[in-house]
Specification:
This protein has 786 residues and is an alpha+beta fold. Helix content is 26%, strand content 24%. The protein starts with 9 loop residues before the first strand and ends in a 15-residue tail after the last helix. The structure holds dioxothiomolybdenum(VI) ion.
Length: 786
């Protein structure tokens, strides 16, 4: 086995609990005992005021105008207090949506124009949820049905496709060398078209927002958001709450660490899942508008169906991918042409072309996005944005290449291993991809696997497949305040968002380690925006970004503590060399064992506690080395030869993501990612009615996600790396990498089992039936196929 990149050490752990034993999540007890507070759980006493309940009314047309709204019957429902429509809604000011969300282009209830089916056209405010729902049913909306019905799929909106300067965070087009010419000349070629259905996040928490206007003219909002400061900005800008909410405010916070001085008091709650959708959501504004209209506090509650149109989704993607290789399978050219569907409003475009050029060595590359704005609810960030569909295409195309050349798929990838970043030749800070292949291959028994399509003892066809996983190691600006208190405990302020990923635990651990305290002496404060600017829980960056700021602040506190110890005549550490002292378990110690408790040291000091704030940035511009996390997923599938129903019998992932701060929680997140990938491969799809633009399966019964029966055996292996050459915490991004290799590995295993190459997600039973060769071991009944 070849070693990792120079300067890194890698080892594999497969034990259940790593070295330190299992540790409960910081918020674990509250979750399992039911005392954790989600927004919809918050009662009047806790919010500080009684509140009404409001529910949105949504459009049944995608285009045209609202010509009238009859609110009389709704207002006659006992308990209904008011109906908010575009006629009486507070006027909002234009906002800059840093998140690229719909609200940057289309603010709710500002005019009569319809842009998509399920758009908010009214909000019914009542004394109870029941009354609000009854009122909402009594609303009659009249439409002007003139004009085109709209286009809701890439096929129907093909005439809208056009090139773009940017596809979300990726350039719209990028090239290296002459990829077309290289492709034509390449001795071995793959050329295939792929399709990826739109789908929704389906977080288990449907979502609610509480809002109250306060006597100082500011607003208090309780919500579950992924990026605290960006949502504070949204509300502040929309309601004109002053300079703290303009771009200077954002820059001031992020770069200068200026105190927010905000009249938006956004109290962040736990999220019951989010996956990219809880950023700049419409109902943050609806709640503030409703509360303004009535002068009373209000809670806006979304129904499950409403989350499909009022929150974002991952848009439809169609792409052509061409690989050109030499006779040994070494890549020469890579040409990727994604067509991406965008919602009617907002600037978010799935960055499908962002990563394929970073995975394997190659000579020339062409990536060209086209985008069509459809008459649909907004597209937005969703788990491994762009990467999930990109890697599905790349990794199944690599499998095609391996089949053409009759080379083992792992061997083909090793031949194309990128020793440096293929885009610019920079060295990787660490890369243990080879160990990931070896570890996962070993765990699934790759070398001894049966021939594809051979029959299992249960009469089903067997197939094995694998794929590479990848995640860019991004880091965003962040700031945090760390206070070491007189009692020897610490309070850490960072407006980070817990979505279920375990960030509270990881940041607590980072704080405790940097301060030399036991973990239970650290209290995290994350709920409020009076805290320093913090990075969002987005794109596998939250723990790394915020952890960096905490680490810097904590190290500054530690330095100040040691300076006090050696300057304090009454301390046994007086006049010691501070560079020789260690802080551990709440004590400061010299090499000879002399020491003193942190609490005693601080208690003697006139200034008591020590507090420091740190601001950290990302490396804007080019750093000398490239950072990314790598992994590999191997799966075993079984396919019924008559019904063609596939099951994923075993999913094995091996990942190298730098140091794991909380190994147990990291494994849990990677496991969840692998399961999400099973959904991407076989189940997840939101179907749109091509006549009306309505999401057809907008409920948890018909929007399929993996259940326990779909998942079977999932195994996560971690190849431990120490990335301290890159960063003092030694960590890299870890989250979305769990998702991205699974679906292509499953597609490759299905091809192995059946000889059928499916190139769309989800891969449905009917697709397999339609494509299956007649020569499967058991005769098929043709009329079973659609
Ligand atoms: Mo992630 S798609 O930024 O939650």
């Amino acid at each position: 086995m070849s070693p990792t990149a120079p300067g890194t050490a890698a080892r594999t752990t497969t034990s259940a609990h790593g070295d330190r034993g299992p540790r409960p999540r910081v918020e674990g007890r509250s979750k399992v005992t039911g005392t954790a507070r989600y927004v919809d759980d918050v009662r009047a006493a806790e919010f500080g005021s009684d509140f009404d309940v409001a529910v949105p009314v949504t459009s049944t047309r995608a285009t045209g105008r609202v010509t009238g709204i009859d609110v009389g019957a709704a207002l006659a429902v006992p308990g209904v207090r008011a109906v908010l429509t575009h006629r009486n809604a507070p006027r909002l000011r234009k906002v800059l949506a840093v998140s690229m969300a719909e609200v940057g282009e289309l603010l709710p209830l500002q005019d009569d124009r319809l842009r998509y089916h399920g758009q908010c056209v009214a909000v019914v405010i009542a004394s109870s949820l029941r009354a609000a729902q009854d009122g909402a049913r009594a609303i009659a909306v009249h439409h002007d049905d003139a004009g085109a019905p709209g286009a809701f799929t890439l096929a129907d909106g093909a005439d809208r496709l056009g090139r773009v300067a940017r596809a979300g965070i990726a350039p719209g087009e990028s090239t290296a060398g002459d990829a077309e010419a290289d492709h034509r000349a390449a001795p071995v070629r793959v050329d295939r078209e792929y399709h990826h259905a739109p789908h929704h996040h389906n977080a288990i928490e449907p979502s609610a927002v509480l809002a109250r206007w306060d006597p100082d003219g500011g607003v208090t909002v309780r919500a579950a958001v992924q990026w605290h400061h960006v949502d504070t900005l949204l509300i502040g800008q929309a309601f004109g709450l002053g300079p703290a909410h303009g771009i200077p405010g954002l820059v001031g916070r992020a770069l200068l660490g200026a105190a927010p001085g905000s009249r938006v008091r956004l109290v962040n709650a736990l999220s019951g899942g989010a996956f990219g959708r809880n950023i700049n959501t419409i109902h943050l504004l609806l709640a503030c508008m409703a509360a303004k209209l009535t002068g009373r506090a209000v809670k806006v509650v979304l129904s499950r169906e409403q989350t499909f149109s009022l929150l974002s989704h991952r848009g439809e993607v169609a792409q052509r991918l061409r690989l050109g290789a030499d006779a040994d399978g070494r890549l020469i050219s890579l040409i990727q042409e994604p067509d991406v569907a965008k919602g009617a409003a907002g600037t978010y475009v799935e960055p499908v072309g962002e990563v394929p050029g970073r995975i394997y060595a190659h000579r020339s590359r062409l990536v060209r996005h086209r985008v069509a704005a459809l008459d649909l609810s907004s597209t937005g960030w969703m788990r491994a944005p762009g990467v999930s569909s990109a890697l599905f295409a790349l990794e199944t195309a690599m499998d095609d290449l391996a089949r053409q050349l009759d080379v083992d798929p792992v061997e083909l990838r090793l031949r194309n291993h990128a020793e440096t970043d293929p885009e610019d030749g920079r060295p990787w800070t660490s890369k243990s991809l080879r160990q990931c292949y070896a570890t996962a291959a070993e765990a699934i028994g790759w070398a001894e696997r049966p021939a594809g399509g051979s029959l299992r003892p249960d009469g089903r066809l067997t197939g094995y497949g694998m794929a590479t996983s990848f995640d860019l190691g991004r880091r965003f600006p962040a700031s945090a305040r760390v206070e070491l208190r007189r009692d020897g405990g610490a309070v850490v302020s960072v407006a980070a968002a817990e979505l279920g990923q375990g960030i509270l635990s990881a940041l607590t651990t980072i704080s405790a380690e940097a301060l030399g305290l036991d973990r239970d002496r650290v209290v995290l404060r994350t709920a409020e925006t009076a805290l320093p600017y913090a990075a969002g829980s987005i794109g596998s960056t939250g723990t790394f970004s915020n952890g960096t700021a905490i680490h810097a602040a904590a190290r500054a506190v530690r330095r100040a503590l040691l300076a006090r110890a050696v300057a304090d005549r009454r301390s046994p550490l007086h006049r010691r060399d501070p560079s020789t002292l260690v802080v551990e378990g709440g004590r400061v110690r010299a090499p000879d064992g002399t020491g003193e408790a942190v609490a005693d040291l601080l208690a003697r000091h006139p200034r008591g506690s020590i507090s420091r704030t740190a601001r950290t940035g990302r490396t804007f511009g080019r750093s000398a080395e490239a950072t990314a996390s790598f992994g590999a997923v191997f799966v075993e599938v079984a396919v019924d030869p008559v019904t063609m129903v596939p099951t994923v019998e075993r999913t094995v992932g091996a990942f190298a993501c730098g140091r794991l701060i909380e190994p147990e929680i990291a494994r849990s997140q990677l496991t969840g990612g692998l399961i999400w990938g099973i959904g991407q491969a076989l189940l997840e799809e939101t179907r749109v009615d091509r006549r009306t633009g309505r999401w057809l399966n907008a409920n948890l019964a018909e929007a399929l996600v993996p259940t326990q029966a779909d998942v079977r055996s999932v195994e996560v292996h971690v190849v431990e790396e120490d990335d301290t050459r890159n960063h003092p915490l030694g960590m890299k991004g870890l989250a979305e990498i769990g998702v991205v290799g699974t679906a292509p590995a499953i597609a490759n295993a299905l091809a192995d089992a059946t000889g059928v190459r499916l190139s769309s997600t989800p891969m449905r039973v009917e697709d397999l039936l339609r494509a299956a060769p007649a020569a499967l071991p058991v005769p098929r009944t043709p009329e079973v196929a659609r």
